[in-house]
Structure formats: structure tokens, C-alpha cells
Amino acid sequence: MPFSNRIASLLTKTRKIILVSIVFGSTALSAQEGILDDIFGNKENREKPSKPTLESKNKESENPERSKLRENSDKKESPAEPKKDSSLETVDKQDASTLKEDSKNSVVVEKKESEHPRKHGSNHLLEAPSGLMGTHTHAPGTIMVEYRYMLMNMSGLYQGTNKIDPVLPLVFPHQTTTNGSIAGFSATSPSSGNSTYMMTPTQMNMEMHMATLMGAITENLTVMAMIPFVRNSMEMLNGGSYLKTYMSAQGVGDIQGRISYRTMHKENHSLIVSFGLSFPTGSIDQQDFMAPGLPRMKVPYGMQPGTGTYNPSPGLTYTGKWEKIFWGTQALANLRDGKNANGYKFGNRYEASLWIGLKVKDWISFLGRIQLDKWENLSGSDPSLPITMNPQNDPEKQGGRRTIAFAGTNIKLPLISDFETRINFEYGVPIQQHLNGPQLGLKSAFNLSAQALF
To answer: Which residues constitute the signal peptide according to the record (predicted)?
Structure first.
């Protein structure tokens, strides 16, 4: 075969081989791409738009507004925004409803607390010294039950501002209002003279237990009733033997009623006008043995449980508050109306108090108070109380004035059932006293009150 023919035959075979290789290569490549598409997805199909179908042609023929709505719905249903789990949606809805109910309940509770300040101790007007009454009012329908204990420890004999030895009145004559006999005989008519005493007081404890019931008629009007039980005991020095003797008297005192009306009430300020009236329910004829060998005799004026007269008692109280600090002032008068069955009446008594306190915690507060007292001598006399027996039997040696400094604590106890309980107490000592003596002076004073508000 010629060389040219061989070359032509070789080129023909080479072309056939190339064509066969191209066919088999394209077939293998398409098969490989099909397998990869099955595994990973056809990328060209995702990137290249699909050929128009009958449905797409129908969409193109639709109203443009309808197509826009369809596109918006397609966007909402797009898998790019993962759907929330139905269980999570349920939990979220339950949490939202629970929070909503809790907020409603808290609003209701706060509203109830504001409507009923007696609960949970929200009424700051309750923050007042334990030794004072009529310092606050309550919400309508509220009832407060209170127990009070008051103790005055009297010690030392004073004449004016000077403390004197109790032996002096037994040895040296003192001016007396009346020179009367002793041992149960009646005193003579009042006159002026000098005399020694058969005995002088050295110490006396004056105790009072009081039950109080307080009810609110309206938000501004409150009434209360008080029943006291009095117990007085005195230690004396006998002028003959210079030995100590003792006497005591006890019984129900003068029952008192009081009305309090709140004339001003702002967020942090309150003004209350009150009026009380005591009734002569206490005894004025208590007797005891003065000394060995002597018969039973009436105890002195100041030891009797009662006064024997109707005693009006007007008062005015102001209270204020700023954040955790509270303060107040009170003026009170105890007036006497006429003489009692034994021919005398106690002198009028006037009291004024000023206090300030700090609420340290929601359940405890501390306060200090200054009290000014002034009381007058008796008018008239009991003929069965001999003047020369004891200076406390002298109507002209009963008056005086005194300034006392108190320090106290108010404690709110945990709620018992649906009512609030409090315990308040204070302790005081005199910082100045001027007495129409010889007369026992004050050594200390203690006041305690336990309140239940429901």
C-alpha cells in the first residue's frame, strides 16, 4: 500500500477513535452528574430558572394584583423562615397568660392594701408612742383591740426642785393647809399652820392595766372605750419608830369614752381632734392600815383608783411623715367638773408631747418623745384624811410640773390570720420636775401597748 494511502487510513481510524471517545466520555460524565444530583441535588436546576409550564403561563396571565398577593403568600410560606414548634407556642401563650394574671392579681392586691390600710401595716399613723392615745384613725369597719400597761415608779421626796431627806418632815415643822387630828378623827376647817408629819412617803408604784376597744365609724370618725384597772402601793417611813410601813389600794378606775375626728388628711400629714369623757366608776373610799396599832384609814388622794367626778378631756394631735421618718405632737387636757361626794375635786391636768421616730425596717421602728406635764392642787378636802398624818393628805401639796424624756420601740408582729398585731413600748426618765412638796418625785415611767387590728 502506498505511503499516502496508509496515512489517510490512519487519520480515518484516529478520527473514529476520537469520536467514540467523545461519545463514551460524554455518556460517563452525564451518568456521574446524575449520581451527584441524586446525592447533593441538581445545582443547575436550582440556579437556572425552570422552563415555563402551563401553570406558570396561567400565573402570568392572572391579574397583577392577584399575582402580587400570590408572591406575598409564597414569601410567607418560604422555607427561609422556620416555623415555630406548636408546643413552644403553647408554652409561650401559657407564660404570657400567667404573667398577665399575676399582674392583675398584684394590682388587685395593691388596691386592696390601699383600701384597707390596717392590713400589712401600711398605715404610718400607727407609728406613734405607746404612752399616747387618740393618735390615729382607721378605715371604716375596722376594729382594734388593745391592752395597755403603765407603770410609774415614784421615789424621793421633793420640795420644789430640791430633793429632801424623808426624815426632815418628821422632825421639823412644815406649813400645812389644815391642822387636823389623826387616828380617824375629822380634820378641822382649813387654816394655815406649821406641823410635823407622823409619816412620810419614800416610794410608790402606780400601775394601771387598761383594756381598749376602738372602732371606725367612717374614714375620719373613730370611737373608743377604755376600762382601767388601777393598783397603787406605797412605802412610808414611820415618824415614831422610823420603820417602814406599807399600804396599797386597787380596783377598777374611771371608765372613759373618746371620739376622734380627723379634720385634715394628706399624703404625709394628719390632724385629729378628739374629745373624751371619764365617768366616776372608780372608788374614792379605799382604806388600808397606815401603821401598826392604827385602825384602817383612807389611803391618800393620789392612791385612790377613781376621782369621783366626770372629767372631760379634749385633745389635738398632729402627725407627719417623710420617707422613713415620722413625727407628731399632741396636746391633751384633763378637766374636772365639780366636786365629788367627799367634798373635793382633783386639779386640772395638762399634757403636751412631741415625738420623732425612724422606721428602720418594715416591722420595727425607734422613736424618742418629750412629754410636758402640769397638774394643779386639789380644790376642797376630804374631812376623813388628816393633814398631819401624811403630806399626801394635804390638798395644797398635790400640784407640780414635770418634763419626761422617753425612748421607745414599735414592733409589728407577723400577720395572724387576717389581722395585724403590734407591740409598742417606751421607757422614760424625768429631766426636770418642780413639785408642791413635800411630794414624791418620779424616778421612771414605762408604757407598753399590744394592739390587734382586724
So the answer is: 1-31
